[in-house]
């Protein structure tokens, strides 16, 4: 099993076309067998079940549901307890954790 992955994050259905283009491009550039997984992280609360199914049908190796990470005023106090908040860094860490668990 490979420990490498290309990971994308979908937080809305409007990201689906881009995720499908990414998948197609990776398949074109790296025909099977590949030494990496192609993974989509999705927030099921904000992405339609049909879009999640479309990712699976298109050929993503893994489609993993994750909780959204907020950065707005509600809950900001809890985020401040963690120190400086960087959404990109936290999403990348979450992707690493999810891929390592598979």
Strand content: 15-25%
Distance between the termini: 9 Å
Order of helices and strands: EHEHEHH
Q: What value does the Rg take, in angstroms?
A: 15 Å
Percentage of residues in helical conformation? 40-55%
Low-confidence regions: none
Q: What's the total number of strands?
A: 3
Strand order of the largest sheet: 1-2-3
The chain-level structural class is alpha/beta
Biggest sheet record: 3 strands, parallel
CATH topology: Rossmann fold
In CATH, what is the class?
Alpha Beta
Q: What's the shape?
A: globular
What is the tally of helical segments?
4
The name of the CATH architecture is 3-Layer(aba) Sandwich
Mean pLDDT, all residues: 82
- Tell me the domain tally: 1
Task: Summarize it.
The chain has 102 residues and is of the alpha/beta class.
Kindly describe this structure.
The chain is of the alpha/beta class and 102 residues long. It has one domain (5-97): Rossmann fold (3-Layer(aba) Sandwich). It is built from 4 helices and 3 strands. Strands 1-2-3 form a 3-stranded parallel sheet, with helices on both faces. Strand 1 (5-10), helix 1 and strand 2 (37-42) form a beta-alpha-beta unit. The longest helix is centred in the N-terminal third of the chain and has 14 residues, at 16-29. It is globular and about 45 Å long.
